[in-house]
Hints:
Helices cover about 20% and strands about 30% of the residues. By secondary structure, the protein is an alpha/beta fold. The protein has two domains: about 1-50, no CATH class; about 55-145, Vaccinia Virus protein VP39 (Rossmann fold, 3-Layer(aba) Sandwich). The strands form two sheets. A four-stranded mixed β-sheet has the order 3-4-6-5. A two-stranded parallel sheet has the order 1-2. β3, α3 and β4 (about 80-90) form a beta-alpha-beta unit. The protein starts with a helix and ends in a 6-residue tail after the last strand. The relative contact order is 0.14. The model is unreliable at about 40-45 (pLDDT under 50).
Amino acid sequence: MWLAEHGWRVTAFDGAAAAIEILHNRAAQRSLHVDIRVVNLEKANLENGEYRIGPAQWDLVVIAYYLQRDLFEPAKRGVKPGGLLLAIVHIPESDEQPTRYSLAPGELRRYFDGWEILHSYEGKPADAAHRRAVAEIVARRPIESL
């Protein structure tokens, strides 16, 4: 919502139909245009490769509280040179091992070798809605990469 309110053209993907409905309703209340797609429906299934991220297509890609390891490379290719990728994923608590749904400490940053790291954090989230530890990164794609 914040991006759309500040003049960004936004395409949103989410696997939760309830989240999509909330976003759609909030955007309509504010007369904002947001292209909304539900990941687990035929329109845009990221896990099955049914939705392809085009090369150098986006100024900003946000992957928030969703982990699909093989999505990082196509998402990175989808960012325009000089554009940003922001990712927030869960990491295990100190007494846990990484799972399919969490990255090992330091793993997120390794996906962005060669990119300018503007923000990197691992630990307790600032967002009260998420209680589990997170890894966050904001990385800028090099201008000369394609």
